[in-house]
């Protein structure tokens, strides 16, 4: 079918089309795009978690490119890999072997001292096991009402996203309701073009997994560009679920409810016995219920232990030097580079960091004494953003775990690094509300990169953005 390019009055128009295909989304300048249905979509700042899985991966690449082109951090920068395996020393290999041999004697921990991606996976498995039990005790009338509600919402969403000329009509992708990032089950059935989404590979049984592996091994060697295209096809066009460990969410909720007026929270000592009991319950995969009977200081210590014992720090070792060197830049550039480095983090690290910073900002908002409506004085917790950065900085950003003896005698260089670590985390706490917002210019670069390699999905993303804005 002959394609006609309709002229647009704005300068800088970019139109991508292919012979025999409907016209894809069009960039018309000033962060404004036209969808195939004729709707004009102006890009606005959006939360990082609202981006689709594909957009978040492309945002990593765009942020990486901008860091190299516009800022000189004086160090090598690499995009951290989720659950990346590292070369092990002989000592670490022996330790790993000893752990493998003791598997039968001791259950593997479910939360503490393991990779963050594994913690998230364990939490998903736990939730999937809990769902059948909840359904057994669910009122049938509630189930009927929920189904009617979902059906009505799906019908409304289908009408909003339907388009007779959609370039996705030839694929297996159907425009469905955007799942909530907090519901893993909603994301597990997202598919693109007949490919298996990374979210639903874990749902395959053993025979299907072997078949998928055999098919992958039988494929001929691919070029890097082809591998990139194949990777993108497996990424969801919808937001992935919010990846925050249960133990982190549990501790934050408890401390927000009971600990905001506690003086010296995170500084006052806790009961090692009670903290160990809570830790063991979490590692056994138990459903831990925290209430007013639990000491605020015990829960605060549990949260710090989780972050401290992570084999890979939350801000990753790959970006350690880059984060520290942001403190050498001018203040406006500090915030910009820290934000770009945050975009490089794997989703589980980024989502967990956002939840933690949101909590720390809430704590510091109650640092000073205040008065209630009746004029009664409310004691502040005295934990300013600088105090919290001092406490949490070494747990979030470090090259390697150091012993107590190494901390007692610090060199000048070590002291300078500690100051920079505190500065980075302090900046994150004070700017967390904008830190995880994606500005229009970066969204624009993401869409432009998709136009070059995957133009058929741009229109779908534009319509979803338009639906979110409206």
UniProtKB/TrEMBL annotation:
Key words, A-Z: GTPase activation
Protein name in UniProt: Rho GTPase activating protein 6
Keyword Kinase belongs to the record: no
Domain Rho-GAP: 235-436
GO biological process, one term: signal transduction
CDD domains: RhoGAP_ARHGAP6 (cd04376)
SUPFAM superfamilies, alphabetized: GTPase activation domain, GAP (SSF48350)
Bias-annotated ranges (Basic and acidic residues): 123-141
Keyword field contains Zinc: no
GO CC terms of this entry: cytoskeleton
Gene behind this protein: ARHGAP6
Annotated region (Disordered), positions in chain: 123-194
Gene Ontology MF term list: GTPase activator activity
PROSITE patterns: RHOGAP
Comp. bias regions, Low complexity: 162-187
Origin species: Oncorhynchus kisutch
InterPro entries: ARHGAP6_RhoGAP, Rho_GTPase_activation_prot, RHOGAP6/36, RhoGAP_dom
